[in-house]
Amino acid sequence: MLRRLRWIAPLGALALGLAACSSGTTGTATQDTQVSTKADEALAALEGQVLAKGPHGEDPEPASVADLTDDEVAQVKDMGATAAIVMHYGGNDWANAQIAGLTQRFGELGIDIVATTDADFDPGQQVSDIETVMAKKPDIIVSIPTDPVATAAAYQAAADAGVKLVFMDNVPDGLEAGTDYVSVVSADNYGNGVVSAHLMAKALGGAGKIGVIYHEADFFVTQQRYQGFTDTIKSDYPDIEIVDERGIAGPDFAGDAQSVTDAWLTQYPDLDGIWAVWDVPAEGVMAAARSAGRSDLKIATEDLGTNVAIALAAKDMVVGLGAQVPFDQGVTEANLAAGALLGKTAPPYVALSALPVTHDNVLDAWRQVYHTDPPSEVTDSFVD
Question: Given CA atoms 197, 185, 66, 367 in this order, what sign does their dihedral have?
């Protein structure tokens, strides 16, 4: 505003202008502090809590329900059991961590992994993967269905053959916990959506225009993330306007999100932020923002992948995310499967709480999520 004042303006008018600017700045600072305090208090209240219900409305149980005694571990080792891991898609940090947790715990239990498959988010391919795996006669299958309807018959056939099924996040239609499958293990995906909403609001000072990129699929946990984020923005931060929502179906999730963001930055030049349903689509948002010279865009997401961790460390557009703990989820899934071999009954839904991740705790969060030190590209990117 001061640049528009003429140098010949009376000193009184200039003083009034400066006072107005000072008052506005103070008001904005007060609002930012209030929003920051509100968000921080909400995040603190979420610590250790699980907000999500299971796929059929089940109340969550903690991972500790799957723990095995030393005697139970010895019994499982004597069985010489085998397992297969049937993924929806692989090669990303979340899938790698799930597989790492499963591999470590199955090794400790003396359970041999006979196959690990990657369906590239293609239900038809996953059905074929299940049929191929079944030829190896595993005692256990740990899997995340790509589509609850299209894959149901293949999983039912495995259950009918006596395979102990443990699911990640999603369950096939028509299968019953305790009868057809052991349990489903998930992060608190609704809670992760809530976490990212508070972090987005804090970064925006409680006001602004945002876009929402969701997963356009019948996929329970990504729907929960979207619901947690949008519910919280609408109920807690009425001065943040969701100006547009677009779904992406993949399999090129980063490319799809980049295309959406390209269009939005043209259509809504005053857009302040974008929420992306997980880290891979968020990478596409970052690419589009960089191309448009919009390094000021605020991005919130879910899952602590390498590229969003680098961005958080460098204070580069990504303002925060809700992280799962996939390594721990993998350990829990292996424990539940082993318990089922012993005839133990498991709760139908086990969930692990959301982990808020910001610039300040990104390095420690990486250790918590992956049980290893962050890679050099993350630590080298960290700025004070």
Answer: negative
Task: Output the CA torsion 118→122→125→130 (10° steps).
Answer: 70
Can you say whether residue 343 is alpha, beta or left, with left for phi > 0 and alpha for psi between -120 and 50 degrees? Answer: left
Helix (H, G, I), strand (E, B) or coil at 45: helix
3-state secondary structure 219-279: CHHHHHHHHHHHHHHHHHCCCEEEEEEEEECCCCHHHHHHHHHHHHHHHCCCCCEEEECCH
User: Could you read off the pLDDT of 307-345 as tens digits, one per residue?
Assistant: 999 999 999 999 999 999 999 999 999 999 999 999 999
pTM: 0.83
User: For residue 14, is pLDDT > 60?
Assistant: no
Among candidate residues 104, 105, 103, the one with its CA nearest the CA of residue 113:
103
CA dist 274 and 210 (Å) reads 5
Residue where the block lists tokens 């940090």: 93
- Using CA atoms, how far apart are residues 185 and 97, in angstroms rounded to an integer? 14
Residue 172: cis peptide before it, omega within 30 degrees of 0:
no
Token pair in block for residue 308: 């969003």
What type of residue sits at position 214?
Y
Residue type, 90: G
Identify the CA nearest to 228 among candidates 266, 200, 261, 258.
Answer: 200
Q: Which of 325, 337, 326 is nearest to 113 (CA)?
A: 337
Strand order in the sheet with 349-352: 112-118, 82-87, 140-143, 164-168, 183-187, 349-352
The SS3 of residue 50 is coil
CB 212 within 8 A of CB 285: no
pLDDT tens digits for range 25-66:
455 666 688 999 999 999 999 999 999 999 899 999 999 999
